[in-house]
Amino acid sequence: MRQTSNLYSKQNSQEPQVIRGGDKKVMKKSLSLIVAAAMTLTTASVAFADNAPALTPQEKFDALKAAGIFNGFPDGSAGLDKEMTRAEFAKVLTLVAGLTPDATAAQYSDVAATHWAAGYIGAATKAGLLNGLGGGKFGPSGKVTTEQIAKVADLFAKVAIDENATVAGDVSAWAKAYVAAAIKAGFIQESSTYKSNAVRETLVNVAYTLAKPADAVLSATAAQTNNGEITVTLNRAATTEEKAAAKFALTSDDVNYTVTAAWAADNKSVVLTSTYLPAGAYSLAVTGLSAINVTIADEVATKIDITATALQQAESQDLNAVVYNQFGKAVDNADVDLTLVDVTTGKNVDTDGDGNFDLSDKDVFAVGDTFVATAVNAVNGLTTTKTFKLAAGSAATSLKFGTVAPLEGDARVNADTDGYTLPYTFVDQYGAAVKLGTKDVVVDGTRIDLSGITFIVSDKDIVTDLHVDSDGVLTFDTGKAGTVVISAINAATGANTSVSITVAAKASVAKLNMSKPSSVVVADEEVKVPYTALDTYGAKIDATGVDISGVKWGSNLDFAPGYPKLNGKGELLFKFAADQEGTAVVYAYANNVEAGHVSLTVKAPAAPVKLNGITGVVTTLTAGAKVDFDQDNITDLDTYNRTNNVAAGEFQVYTGDDSIVDYVGGQLVGVKAGKQTVTVYYTGGAKEDKNAYSFTVTVVSNDDVKSYTVDTIGTVYAPATAEVPGTAKYYKGVSLTGKLSTGKDVAIVQDGTGSNFGYITSSDTSILGVSGKKVFGVAAGTATVTAYDAAGNVVGTQTVTVSEAAPVAKTATFSADEFDITAATTITLNATTGNYFTVVDQYGVNNAPATAYVTSSDKAIATVALVDGNIVVTPVKTGTVTVTYRTSNGTTATTTVVVN
């Protein structure tokens, strides 16, 4: 994608002639404020588009006004057609340049110290932007001419001046070169005269052009920078507003890939990561930008390196061998074979259990011995060697700990949390950094040795584990709350350091600010109650992180069992018992203190009142055609005038004498040509009841169908030929919809007796094969499916795309938001049958991947496991947990499991 540019990108990046020193920084700040103001006055898409329309003079004025550069008139107008005084001109120049007003510098006899523009006139004069008229006068009420504006703009922007340039139109001799340069630069337009007084519109255009950086409009490019990683590079730093508006959507072959965005500290780039990105062509959409095409390649290992800088006479010496891919990034979990030979003695050194080397035995390994290390990545044919001189062990002469920071999104170091980084700076006698070797240690109250440095933890129940990864990063896990001291001592050199860490108790709900739902509250029905939760530290808790297990509830009306509760989205659900009605006052208590309350009007349970419509069903059929018609197609009104789908088994369908249309097995069936009134009524009632609903079904002959359309086939997966023809799950059926002369849809008989649908063909069977009235993929490409009627006439065509992209999860859904189980019952959410859980790929096929991840929000209540593609939930004790299913490409589904 091209990056936007501007004529003055270089000019505006330089310091104007008339501004000196520290004024430059102030000016840049002022300019950025103007541009930010301009962007807030346009749509969000403009802020992220490289084809943004040019602003009108009014829009430029609005931006400059928002930045405090211009003022409107008392009637609110911009007055763009009005002339501007020299005093007003001085103000605009001062503010655009970011100068500090200085009334003391306005040494003019006609500018009093109390004049409203004295500070601006002084600043513009001091900076050399404006001069007096002579005789010690400035002429603040005098007008500004177009040629005067042209000169100031040229000097401000440091435009090259051609003294020999010519200008058509009336212009002063001294101004000719400046006017010519200003026209060329786009500051002013050509005119018949430049001696006339300038109107405010001219100055608005010039001021905005001077203020607007070349890259005010954001543009972006994108490229793969690692396995599963795309970097979006911006032409400039994004503003806070632009970052907030930026959304990233990555797709390939109609599959959406979940990406996590991480902005660079300078806001000039964004790294997008995904757990799985197969090789292929992708389209990246960024808010307001045209789609960016990105090609993803499979990861290829290209280099291996030993990154350790030294070996010490100590245990756990890590060579830190790294395999790099084509992007220069480390390959995760690369298989590396390491050997280390003390060539001074000819002794091979064995690795310890962690893949490191123990060189602490001084009787075997002497300081100064030469070692040769070899690292081999056999699967990719990569090898490297490195030579070391053994240095004295425990050589760290300076030990320092840094400050432990909370995890991202947290305000403090919390109890029962893993992965806090303990920064350290250990330096040896030569000034080189000393890195700890890889190790995982459970803190048991004794001294801990890490690469010859002794660590002491004052309370093993507060800090429970220490970890050092392959990069030497030291982390720890916490247990209970309290204050703990971690010390490091090098007995060999006497160096030591310590750090005190306060571990806070995990924040719990302290306040629940609840409000009334927007919908009616009905007994025996779930209702979502809006709320805001604050923790014990007064911070707002994100909905997905709220835990109300410690909250106690009080209400004058009884709740249904298991309520109140949170669903998997963190929404607060109330459900009152079926026999409750009236005003309910609900109290929430945290730590035996009221956390919040809400008053609700609870209405009696709803009942169906009247059937009121049908939806999603074709009511014109040919004889023999069938259409599904069940509770999903029938709606009714309840007691509170709400439209719902009728409950299964609670309705009957009457089709008269069945001679025109019949109702069999949940389907309307065309019998013969004609019209028939079909009536739906409640079970236990009668078709004549006022709460019944009637509609007309028309049955037509094949001759009445004047045209056909091929129903959408969608993308077909290839190769599918290895599967059994006719039953293969990636075969796709081809069907037709008929059309009357009026254009109305007709359900037709697709096959067999009474069908006018003959057969189908493919324009290229090497891409798209045909089996009966089904198609299957052979190879990537496109082919045209042609449908014929029984007489062999073409009745419809459709271009079909065949893709070889491997099936990946596109959607994952649970059949219910909540499942209830007992404490003694293990349940299986079956993905393969779709009874409780369904994963659908980009081809519309139910296809649960072999590899996925499933978690429980609280293992103390229920554990979960993925067994043969099914989710097995094992209850531990009563309570509520959120079960989350996530595929390797980031497709996610959640549900709530209540253990009773």
From TrEMBL:
Q: Write out the entry's keywords from A to Z.
A: Signal
Among Pfam families, the record links this protein to: SLH
Question: Which residues, if any, are the signal sequence?
Answer: 1-49
- InterPro entries, per this entry? SLH_dom
Q: Which residues cross the membrane?
A: none
**Matching PROSITE patterns, A to Z?**
SLH (PS51272)
Which residue range or ranges hold the SLH domain?
A: 44-103, 104-167
In Swiss-Prot or TrEMBL terms, this protein is called SLH domain-containing protein
- From which organism does this entry originate? Paenibacillus albus
